[in-house]
Design a protein that fits this description.
The complex is a heterodimer of chains A (305) and B (809). Chain A has 305 residues and is of the alpha+beta class. Helix content of chain A is 33%, strand content 28%. In chain B, a hairpin with a 4-residue loop joins strand 9 and strand 10. Classes of the chains: A alpha+beta (305), B alpha+beta (809).
Chain lengths: 305, 809
């Protein structure tokens, strides 16, 4: 469990990092929090010739919140995003999902953008970005592009990041109107990859009747799966909704697979149970949202350690 | 008076050093040594048809590549079969490097030595081994069916077949008014110490001697094996255990192939060589345990009293049997627990499979045995509609029946005789602790809230402190400091603390003045090892006896100095003084000076011992004829039979009606290991054991596919419980002293883990209303069991119907 030799690059700003990535092309890997990459290197499951360490890029260590959403830089650690009150006020689903990402020690090092770039369909942040309809900013030497989430995740552990590109930020938009969210999951052990997880967003009208209900599913598909379950709940309130109808509707679109921790059938059961739990809580939370409330623009930045 | 240390919750003296990172583990040693890595078999069963190393030859830093062909002398022979047994008619062991066949994924085929581990692994990647893959034998049923053989010359894949009988169990069962049969299944798990195996060897060419550092549970065992394999005189080999980051059984197996190969290469290369096992290697090339299929037949009267018990065990021993058949022997003898079985027959077959070897893991066969017996007890209670604790109580061996001879032979080849224990007392304490009699009321309240809860109970007896012997050496230095050595090894249990407690009391010195060394053959060359909850019993008593010898000598010498009768002297706080007149005293350090007449002075203390300045009685030689210089003592403890500890656990679980998640609400332990040397350390042992028990019951399994690939060979997929999965553990102690040893103690190391699978099965079954026969159990499995139960494929417990009404258990 020792990695093969690689050349280590330690750029100190974004321009240097993009130069390095342009130079190393497909032989390079970006090292941010290292929570997935380092084990893969040690187990020799990945053997890049170059490692471009972006931990010196303090300019990317930011969480910026505006009324429209939250921008997270490539060097913001999960723990920082999770703790950010301004971000929580505008996009509560971020903290709801982040608290389920592994353990505090992993969240202290792992980066939110890094986990998105890793594109693990079991990762909570992929589901959050998908449910919110967020986007990723990818930079290369001389240019920058923004990719919508539906185009970003290509397959399991595969994102549309091209050779020489660096994922510099993720944008998590605020959901409009009276919208409540919730993220629930069931893992074998506290902090493990979930056997199944569901993130839900429910919007209600002024009479607290459901006008939109959507759910994103974790560990059930190769790329994050978002289902619109409005048809099963439209016009209902938290008290009159028949949640099981939503679970039944979702089940028709889910094709879980089995593994050593959960059979496909058990996963389907969990998906149903969690769909109900997530939608119910999201609906209850939606009722508490003040649709006219304003959220001040704040910006939290820090230097890289 | 000096405060009595024995029995006090003294804080562990080793912890500060370990917790601030000053421990020295195997991989902390040998800066600058060469490092080894291994090419291991990717196949469960194959013939090696070619090995091509040319691709590796240009790796920078490569020192040597070894295959079986390169092995010399006895190193080229199969590894030892450590514990032979007459029933082990077809024992097989591996070669240090595979000779022609590989029999499990992970078996070592090529050893690479390079200037560091990175480069050694680079070289390994470039070595091509060609295999002719053969269909493997995976799973106990397949091994027993024996359509294929693991070893061509072992018919039926059967390494050993052993039957032990007391009375005629089949006849007793046939004649019994009630009969039941259970089919049970326990999966594999493994020790998984935080630190894996590791060896570091230094050859001194000028001295023609070898020093081997190894992360082992027996330094004397490794030393003897290395000397024999390398054809070296024993006195040219020393074996030292540095700090060891956990063992739990896997490190009692010896010599591991690497423990022979690394010293052999160090001598050949005339350079230090080290190997540190990584986690993947530990999963696929160390050892596993637990896997068994059991058939239990019981006959019993209307009170639930056992009349006959007939157990058949199919035991998976993996690809080889270097540690003999200790595990199934323990299962078949310790299965009896605190009960009188009536007539008893136990029949086990130890079977080969193309998987990692099976050797003792904390509990060592007992968890499986307890599972069999306790599942049977619950089934009897359910059959008769009786309280589960009531059925256990009618079968208990009573305190006045001790010592109780089961008429069987135990793992040490000696009679299975329980020395002491108060089983009814233990059960009463447990029922009180967990609130057994109030549980139905709690269940009713929980049910009203839509919650599903269950309670389980399981009892065990554990033979601890097996022989043949351990020794201790105690020496008082001229500073008054006391150094203690024993040969067995430590893996973090707190031996330095508890042995110091014993010596502090026996000698009358402050505990801070006592230092203990374990597992270093330079300090104490005679020992067996640390396993079977034996360290405190064996070395603790040996050290106590050695300390008593030192005390006797100190009093004799001090008596001469103080011109007093030794019988009138006592030692308090390191001062030998006349009882009742504390003014007349001499420091123990001074007694040490007096004990060793010197010619040369090097400081004030030694000056007092030199011949020309000291007082001398010219009628006697400086050292009396039957005396020895120095204030030291050595002694050994060798018990006639093991001493038997016992315990009982209860757990309350809640199972989620929708997700089948299993939550532990309370976990209660009543434990009796005789006198407690240090209650805090005993409780720590229980906590650790329960944590491993929770793992084995609810999380851990070795997931082999049909090709013999271990598909969960990493900590991502092999689920050891985190702290978040281990419940708060409530403990009550009984102290029934052992009559067998001077300190009246019994072992405690394995206690916590032994009844865990049984107690969880008992509680989950109680919550669900249908039998649980297979452990570990995970939510996905419980979900499918519920579906089968709902479909009528699994019978309900008899108490199932009453369950709903909340009247019965």
């Amino acid at each position: 469990m020792k990695p093969p030799a690689f050349r280590y690059h330690a750029p100190t700003d974004l321009a240097e990092a993009l130069d390095a990535l342009a130079e190393v092309g497909h032989d390079g890997k970006v090292l941010a929090g290292g929570q997935s990459l380092i084990p893969m290197l040690n187990m020799r499951l990945a053997a890049p010739a170059h490692l471009v360490d972006i931990n010196g890029l303090s300019e990317l260590a930011y969480v910026r919140t505006d009324p429209g959403g939250v921008a997270v830089g490539a060097l913001a650690r999960h723990a920082e995003v999770e703790a950010d009150e301004a971000a929580h006020a505008v996009v509560p689903l971020l903290r709801q999902g982040l608290r389920l990402v592994a353990h505090p020690v992993i969240r202290n090092r792992g980066t939110t953008v890094g986990s998105l770039a890793h594109a693990d369909p079991s990762g909570e942040m992929t589901a959050v970005l998908a449910l919110l309809g967020g986007s990723m900013t990818l930079a290369r030497k001389g240019s920058t592009r923004t990719v919508a989430v539906e185009d970003f995740f290509v397959g399991p552990l595969e994102a549309s990041i091209e050779e020489g590109e660096l994922a510099v930020a993720a944008y998590f938009p605020r959901l409009p109107g009276r919208t409540g969210t919730e993220f629930v999951e069931i893992a074998r052990r506290h902090g493990d990859y979930a056997m199944c997880g569901v993130a839900a967003a429910v919007t209600v009208d002024d009479d607290l009747r459901i006008v939109s209900a959507r759910a994103a599913y974790l560990s059930l598909s190769p790329v994050p799966l978002v289902l619109d379950l409005t048809d099963a709940l439209i016009g209902r309130t938290a008290d009159t909704a028949v949640w099981q109808d939503a679970a039944t509707l979702a089940a028709g679109s889910l094709e879980p697979e089995g593994d050593i921790h959960a059979t496909a059938e058990y996963r389907a059961q969990l998906a149903g149970v969690l769909t109900v739990r997530a939608l119910r809580t999201a609906t209850e939370r939606a009722a508490l949202v003040d649709p006219n409330g304003t959220t001040g623009t704040t910006s939290t930045e820090r230097s890289a350690r | 008076m000096t405060t009595k240390m024995f029995g006090a919750p003294v804080q562990r003296t080793e912890d500060l050093r370990l917790l601030v990172g000053n421990g020295r583990y195997l991989d902390d040693l040998g800066e600058g040594s060469y490092e080894a890595a291994f090419v291991r078999s990717p196949h469960a069963r194959a013939r090696i048809t070619g090995i091509d190393v040319t691709g590796a030859l240009d790796v920078d830093g490569l020192i040597a590549i070894y295959t079986y062909e390169d092995l010399t002398g006895r190193v080229a022979e199969p590894l030892p079969l450590l514990i032979p047994h007459p029933a082990l008619t077809h024992g097989r062991t591996a070669y240090p490097l595979a000779k022609e066949f590989v029999n499990h994924v992970g078996e070592a085929v090529v050893m690479v030595v390079a200037t560091d581990r990175y480069l050694a692994e680079d070289a390994c990647e470039r070595i091509t081994v060609e295999y002719e893959a053969l269909p493997p034998v995976v799973g106990i049923e397949n091994a027993h069916r024996a359509d294929r053989l693991v070893h061509d010359d072992v018919p039926g894949n059967c390494a050993a077949h052993l039957v032990q009988e007391v009375g005629d169990a089949p006849a007793a069962i046939a004649a019994a008014p009630n009969r039941l049969e259970l089919k049970l299944d326990i999966e594999r798990s493994a020790c998984m110490p935080m630190e894996g195996r590791g060896v570091y060897a230094r050859w001194d060419a000028a001295d023609e001697s070898l020093r081997v550092y190894t992360s082992t549970q027996t330094s004397t065992g490794v030393r003897a094996a290395v000397a024999a394999k390398l054809d070296l005189p024993l006195d040219r080999v020393e074996c030292v255990t540095p700090d060891v980051g956990g063992g739990f059984g896997v490190k009692i197996v010896h010599p591991w192939p690497e423990e022979i190969l690394i010293p052999w290469a160090a001598r050949l290369l005339d350079h230090e060589v080290k190997w540190t096992e990584d986690r993947r290697e530990h999963f696929i090339s160390a050892a596993h345990e637990r896997g068994q299929l059991q058939t239990v037949r019981v006959g019993f009267d209307d009170d639930g009293r056992l009349l006959g018990l007939d157990v058949e065990i199919l035991h998976d021993n993996g690809a080889y049997t270097p540690y003999g058949i200790i595990v199934p022997i323990i299962t078949s003898t310790q299965l009896l627990g605190p009960y009188k079985p009536g007539a008893y027959r136990v029949d086990f077959r130890s079977l080969y499979t193309n998987t990692v070897i099976v050797t003792p893991y904390r509990g060592a066969g007992r968890p499986q045995g307890v599972f069999a017996m306790e599942r049977a007890m619950d089934a009897i209670a359910d059959h008769l509609g009786k309280d589960r604790t009531e059925v256990r109580a009618v079968n208990f061996i009573q305190p006045d029946e001790m010592p109780y001879d089961h008429g069987l032979l135990f793992q040490d080849g000696r009679p299975l005789i329980y020395d002491s224990g108060d089983f009814p007392g233990s059960l009463d304490a447990l029922k009180k602790l967990v609130g057994w009699d109030e549980f139905e009321a709690y269940r009713a309240r929980a049910r009203a809230e839509g919650r599903r809860v269950g309670i389980g109970v399981a009892c065990y007896v554990e033979g601890t402190g097996v022989g043949p012997y351990e020794g201790g050496h105690v020496q008082v230095e001229t500073t008054g400091k006391v150094v203690v050595a024993t040969g067995l090894t430590s893996q973090g249990q707190g031996h330095q603390t508890v042995f110091a407690q014993i010596v502090a009391d026996e000698l009358g010195v402050p505990i801070e003045d006592v230092t203990v060394t374990t597992g270093d053959t330079r300090r104490f060359p005679y020992a067996v090892g640390t396993f079977a909850s034996r360290a405190a019993v064996m070395s603790g008593n040996a050290i106590a006896l050695a300390a008593r010898n030192v005390k006797a000598k100190a009093l004799r010498i001090a008596g001469e100095a103080l011109e007093a009768d030794p019988r009138d002297l006592e030692i308090v706080d390191g001062q030998v003084r006349v009882k009742g007149s504390p003014g007349a005293s001499v420091a123990l350090g001074t007694v040490a000076v007096l004990s060793n007449p010197l010619r040369y002075a090097f400081d004030e203390a030694s000056k007092a011992a030199t011949q020309l300045t000291g007082k001398a009685d010219f009628s006697k030689p400086p050292v009396a004829e039957d005396d020895e210089p120095g204030l030291e003592g050595r002694d050994y403890y060798s018990p006639p039979t093991a001493t038997f500890a016992n315990g009982m656990h209860a757990v309350i679980v809640e199972t989620d009606p929708d997700t089948a998640e299993i939550r532990i609400l309370r976990y209660c332990v009543v434990h009796d290991c005789g006198h407690l040397i240090n209650p805090m350390i005993v409780e720590g042992q229980v906590h650790g054991g329960v944590a491993q028990g929770v793992g084995g019951a609810l999380y851990e399994r070795m997931e082999y596919d049909e090709h013999g690939q271990l598909v969960n060979a990493s900590f991502m997929d092999f689920l050891m419980p985190y702290a978040s999965e281990v419940p708060k553990i409530e403990i009550d102690h009984l102290e029934t002293p052992s009559p067998l040893n001077p300190l009246g103690i019994k072992g405690a190391g394995e206690a916590g883990v032994i009844p865990a699978a049984a107690v969880f099965a008992s509680a989950i079954e109680d919550a669900e209303g249908f039998p649980i026969t297979r452990m570990p159990i995970q939510p996905s499995e419980l979900f499918h069991l519920r579906k089968r139960f709902a479909a009528g494929e699994i019978p309900a417990l008899r108490r199932g119907a009453d369950h709903a009404a909340g009247t019965h258990r």
